Amino acid sequence: MSKFDVVVIGSGPAGYVAAIRAAQLGLKTACVEKARNKSDKLALGGTCLNVGCIPSKALLDSSYKYHEAKDNFADHGIGTGDVTIDVPAMIKRKDAVVAQMIGGIGGLFQANGVTSIEGLGKVLAGKKVEVTAADGSTSILEAENIIIATGSIPVAIPPAPVDQDIIVDSTGALEFQSVPAKLGVIGAGVIGLELGSVWSRLGSEVVLLEALDTFLPIVDSQIAKEAAKVFKKQGLDIRLGARVTATNTAKGKVEVSYTHNDEEKTEIFDKLIVCVGRKPMSNGLLAPDCGVNLDERGFIFVDDHCKTDAAGVFAIGDVVRGPMLAHKGSEEGVMVVECIAGHKVTMNYDCIPSVIYTHPEIAGVGKTEEQLKAEGVPYKVGTFPFAAIGRAVAANDSTGMVKMLAHEETDRILGCHIIGASAADLVQQIVIAMEFGSSAEDIGLTVFGHPTLSEAVHEAALAVNGQAIHMPNRKKRK
Q1: Is residue 340 located within the same domain as residue 406?
Q2: Which of 71, 103, 131, 284 has the highest CB neighbour count under 10 A?
Q3: Confidence (pTM)
Q4: Count of domains in the chain?
Q5: Model confidence pLDDT, tens digit, residues 219-267
Q6: What is the CATH number of the domain that holds 53?
């Protein structure tokens, strides 16, 4: 029986980061991973690297470059002639990016002394992990500490069974070899919008069927309304309150039945993507007597430091409460191994940024205006449009705005929400500011480079207190 200080189950952003940090802290560490890639080799990196964050961003970037060359280069005086897209070449590049990153994790494991173990991990009683190899053989690992980081999988819905041919999930949507003439997407959340954007830019007629009556309810409503207008202008057909009731595939197409505004409707698509959310990968993970408990949705019960109900067993990432975000899982991994090493650390769950990688990007941190209203927190708002930022106008990319929320009495920043170019990077400035308890005035007094997109953040902070320079300020109500 092999013995380790730490055994991590899962090598996604939560698991591999935890394993590397544990090894850096001098703990004998193993990481168990069952996934294999197209070449039937061990696929480190989890969903994010293999079939999520990284490959989708590769396709988003490729499709946006095509869109820019086809539709926007002429505005800059650049002539390109007929612009074409080679979809198989685009997919091949995506695969190469993924392979490169997987190799990078393997190199980091080797450099830090992490033992990589291939197989399916299961938590047993007494801080033991059973590993089932591809050939069915089993072995037992003994650990002083176990970290569960098994991630999540797409939610399936009975009306639209995935066949990974005509009806696909988010994984299958990364493998199309041609542009569907008409593409249906069930779900207009983060994944649906990103994947819909990829194929819309490449020429698909994209229809998103969203069961909810509210568009992007997790996003500040002012930003969500702006996003809805932008996506409609881009050609995305987003139908809210559309509940899919059945699908039927025939002759290489799929007919989708759904209810919309109390009417029964049907639509025929060449491809259909099902992306209605994700659920924790916890099925078959735990022996009945291991002491780790699940809630009714399959999430593992943990405390604020990701400790489960079993001594010495932790769980992090998508398999526990909180947003299913790679960076949230990674930081939980660091926190857990620091605690294992005897350090006193905590994680600030109030300052986790979220991003939708459409173009323009949508990003936010902290409270939305709706949350502050519901909680009865006195607040003030500052907004600023990218249309008034010289760098954005010069780049022909001036859609969107920055919205800053601060406490009415203390001026402390409570949230920041952005739709616009590079929103994911711009919001990170406010993540740092909020970690240090900064006020809107602190941001307003900071010198920002000119001309930059980040000046929109500066001006929004100034606008909170009626001091914006490059736009008229709202008159305060008496």
Answers
A1: no
A2: 131
A3: 0.96
A4: 3
A5: 999 999 999 999 999 999 999 999 999 999 999 999 999 999 999 999 9
A6: 3.50.50.60
